């Protein structure tokens, strides 16, 4: 089973953004040392408790502090940007770090409507234009000068020896069909979806149209996981992430609370129901329990790879979670 890391670069209640971003770099180094396949970092805009609005900046920093692990965006929020500029940036990264760069593409705003308006004009129109933007981006990444594309003679320089590997990220049938139509690898965000994931991924596999004769469909399943040596410890650590999600939904909180702070947070009956629903979409437990569940998901979703999202208050707890999972999965 291939395992990877999705990092949202969370800021804990006792951290600065600088400290959170430095922990992200350390997490990528840890992932490389433990045998994780890839490390992706997410893009968010003016969301309290999340430190990374510019994955491309962090990837240059992380690439310089690692040597083998694949690194990429999870995701570039394409409606905010021109495809040509995105291709230039990721070609630059692929030139600096040959054979290691992924470019995950998403259509979400990544922040408030106000942030979207500040970032780009006509965001909703650009979401509607997403298929055209994806086609344009692939053209620039692949330097396809045989097509009759509008920009057929324009290069996104520098042109790397190995182009960035494009992935489409999503949580719906619409994203799965677009990935299949464009012949792209697909990452399904199970950790943030209430849709029928197995059905969506099967639709992707059934309708995949390769851009070249050697291409095959490829699926990453992204799940929310907290692992500790004992189930009880994992449940306690997970409480910080759960209460933080609850706070965000209410417009409260400035970072991931400590376990003590999470325990003191007042909860009503509606909150308790929400928490139970959240936990149903998480994997929480000891290493053997977590790996058993991940293997079940691989079979159920026909996934080639599992990408883990782990948010804890303590950086040490986060590293330990990834470490315990790797040791159980890779027999370290």
TrEMBL record:
CDD domains per record: Flavin_utilizing_monoxygenases
MF (Gene Ontology): oxidoreductase activity, acting on paired donors, with incorporation or reduction of molecular oxygen
InterPro entries with a match to the protein in the record: Bact_Lucif_Oxidored (IPR050766), CmoO-like (IPR019949), Luciferase-like_dom (IPR011251), Luciferase-like_sf (IPR036661)
Domain of life from the UniProt record: Bacteria
SUPFAM superfamilies (alphabetical): Bacterial luciferase-like (SSF51679)
Stretches assigned to the Luciferase-like domain: 1-300
Any matching Pfam family: Bac_luciferase
Coiled-coil regions listed in the entry: none
GO cellular component labels: cytosol
Family: To bacterial alkanal monooxygenase alpha and beta chains.
Protein name: Luciferase family oxidoreductase group 1
């Amino acid at each position: 089973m291939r395992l990877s890391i999705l990092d949202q670069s969370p800021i804990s209640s006792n951290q600065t953004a600088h400290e959170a971003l430095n922990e992200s770099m350390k997490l990528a180094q840890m992932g490389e040392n433990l045998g994780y396949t890839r490390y992706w970092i997410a893009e968010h805009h003016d969301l309290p408790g999340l430190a990374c609005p510019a994955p491309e900046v962090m990837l240059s920093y992380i690439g310089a502090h690692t040597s083998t692990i694949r690194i990429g965006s999870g995701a570039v929020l394409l409606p905010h940007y021109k495809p040509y500029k995105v291709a230039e940036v990721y070609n630059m990264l692929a030139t600096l770090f040959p054979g290691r760069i992924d470019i995950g593409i998403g259509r979400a705003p990544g922040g408030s409507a106000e942030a979207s308006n500040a970032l780009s004009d006509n965001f909703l129109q650009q979401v509607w234009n997403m298929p055209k933007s994806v086609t344009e981006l692939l053209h620039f990444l692949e330097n396809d000068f045989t097509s009759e594309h509008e920009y057929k003679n324009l290069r996104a320089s520098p042109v790397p020896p190995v182009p960035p590997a494009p992935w489409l990220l999503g949580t719906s049938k619409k994203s799965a069909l677009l990935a299949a139509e464009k012949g792209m690898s697909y990452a399904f965000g199970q950790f943030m979806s209430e849709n029928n994931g197995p059905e969506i991924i099967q639709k992707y596999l059934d309708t995949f149209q390769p851009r070249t004769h050697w291409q095959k469909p490829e699926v990453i399943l992204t799940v929310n996981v907290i692992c500790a040596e004992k189930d009880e410890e994992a449940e306690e650590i997970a409480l910080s992430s759960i209460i933080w999600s609850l706070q965000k939904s209410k417009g409260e909180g400035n970072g991931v609370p400590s376990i003590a702070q999470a325990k003191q947070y007042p909860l009503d009956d509606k909150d308790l129901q929400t928490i139970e629903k959240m936990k149903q979409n998480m994997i929480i437990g000891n290493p053997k329990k977590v790996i058993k569940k991940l293997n079940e998901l691989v079979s159920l979703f026909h996934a080639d790879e599992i990408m883990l999202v782990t948010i804890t208050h303590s950086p040490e707890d986060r590293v330990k979670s990834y470490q315990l999972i790797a040791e159980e999965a890779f027999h370290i």
